[in-house]
Amino acid sequence: MVWWWWILPGVLAFCGLTFLISGLSALFRGRPLSGLLAAIGGGGLAAAGVAIALFGMNLQTWQRLTYEQSVATISLRQTAPQRFEATVTRPDGSSGAYPLAGDEWRIEAQVLRWEPWANVLGLNAQYRLERLSGRYRSIDQELNDERSAHDLTLPAEAEREPWDLDAWLVAQRMGRYVRAVDTLYGSAAYMPMADGAVYEVWLTQSGLIARPANAAANTASTDGGWVRAR
Fold first, then answer.
1. Is 108 in the same domain as 36?
2. Same domain membership, residue 176 and residue 155
3. Same-domain status, 134 and 191
4. Cβ(74)–Cβ(198) below 8 Å
5. CB-hemisphere CA count at 13 Å for 136?
6. What is the pLDDT of residues 69-126, one digit of tens each?
7. What dihedral do alpha carbons 72, 93, 197, 219 form, nearest 10°?
8. Residue 206: which pLDDT band, with cuts at 50, 70 and 90?
9. Residues 6+ away with beta carbon under 8 Å from 206
10. For residue 36, how many C-alpha atoms fall within 13 Å in the half-sphere facing its CB?
11. DSSP H helical segments within 67-166, as ranges?
């Protein structure tokens, strides 16, 4: 729920309280009829404002606690057995290509999770992409074969000066005074690689999730015990 949802209940509550106080004042000044009508009308307006505010908060809870934001789109091209090139496209349109070795890709991010009451007020989970890597299904291959890992940290994030402020740093510092941050933690998602497969990576209020975005990705996710995302 955006900020202007609070204007109507706020105006109603303010008008209701004004009429209610005016009516009570009239009652004490010996004008029972006008005072009673003003008090009843004011109380009704104030109650309507509270009811609309509660209804809006309920809607906000559903919207914010189930909110998802796009993090990246990952497109795969096979170059050799267990070798792929992954193109990571961010929501702003920037992209990069990374060679990966293995059977699955894995993307990792740092996630800032807010308390539920902060979600309701409009604060969504924050993230910083950190790493893209290849992953073998076989533990023996994971221990002995070629590994691949790439840094996804943006230069602006890595070179941030101590005096620069953003939502991430503010949340860390405000935790001393207001319990709005639930936790800062690492989150990851991984899916199987296949030639021509495309996946979408999303951030929920709980962490990263990945979904197949085309037929090749759906086919890959049904092989080897993977279940197709709905």
1. no
2. yes
3. yes
4. yes
5. 15
6. 899 999 999 999 999 999 999 999 999 999 999 999 999 998 877 776 666 666 677 7
7. 60
8. confident
9. 113, 125
10. 4
11. 116-120, 139-144, 155-158
Token pair for residue 215? 């037929």
- On whether residue 230 sits in a domain, the answer given is no
Domain boundary among 13, 46, 64: 64
Tell me the C-alpha distance between 209 and 192, whole Å. 14
Contact, 8 vs 52, CB < 8 A? yes
Per the structure block, which two tokens stand in for 224? 């080897």
End-to-end CA distance of the chain: 27
Question: How many angstroms separate the CA atoms of 156 and 102, rounded?
Answer: 30
Per residue in 145-168, pLDDT (tens digit) is 999 999 998 876 544 444 344 555
Q: Which residue has the tokens 């998802």?
A: 68
Indicate if 94 and 48 belong to the same structural domain. no
Say yes or no: 84 and 188 in one domain.
yes
Structure tokens given for 48: 């309507």
Instruction: Tell me the β-bridge partners of 200.
Output: 73, 211
Residue 187 CA from chain centroid, whole number: 13
